[in-house]
Structure formats: structure tokens, C-alpha cells
Amino acid sequence: MKFLKAPAPRNAETYSGIRSFSAPFIAFEHAKSHTVGMTKKDSHEAYIATAPEQFRPMLSRLRAQLSRALPDAEEVIKYDMPGYQIEETIVAGYAAFSRQCGLYVDPAAIAAHADEIASLKLKATKTGVTFSVSNPITDELVEKLAASSRSKKGF
CA-to-CA distance for 28 and 19, rounded, in angstroms? Predict the structure, then answer.
């Protein structure tokens, strides 16, 4: 009887030579496949401009909040999503979908603020928080998640 070798687990080497595999990377890959009606963009402005119209003000505000919370982070577009990176590490990112938006950070940041996320009746996954026009994410929570994600990433 011949046994098949199990496939190697996905790791950093699987994805374009990125040295460290991190949860926001997973979120970016997942969200990329669900971003609606947008073509590839090369700036945060372009991404927001092509997002569903009802989300553009929220995304602009989220961008400003993340810029303030992560002043030394570079704005990047990675995996067709806007994000903030320090050195080569994505600390936070965001995306627009057909019915909601998402903020993506380190899983430990989500876990550390799970009670607050739940109290605001926002949906949380391992790597992100989704919100809508009728139930937006608060400025305070964005700041806490960005700071926590930065800390958990070692910066």
C-alpha cells in the first residue's frame, strides 16, 4: 500500500517570499476575493473612489483614523487592499464589500478587544471587524485596534 504525502502547510515561502506569515495577510487574501466591483488600484484614494458610494465617507474617515493612530506607518496597497505597514509588516488594513466594510488587524488585537467589539454589536472574525453604515465602527475602537495590532506585531 502506498501512502500519499500530505501537502506542505502554507507558509511564508508559499507567498512571494514574504518572510513572516501573519493573519492580516490571510485577511487580505480572503478579502481580495470578496471585494466587489473594484478594479486594481494603486492608492488609497483610488480604492476609496471605486468603493460602493455609501461606504466612501466611512472609508475616508477610517483612513484618517488609521493615519493618526499609526503615524509612522506607510500607506500601501497590498493584495488589492489598502493597508498600513511598518518595515515589511502589515499592521492594519481595510476593505469595502457589497454590504459592509472591514478593518483587519492582528488576531491578538481582535481577541484583546472582543468584549468591546461585541458590545458595539459588530461582527468579528479572527483577523477583522466588519461594520456598516447603519452600525459603524467607533473612532475609539479603531484607535485601540490599531495600537494593539502595532504592539502585537512588535512595533
Answer: 16
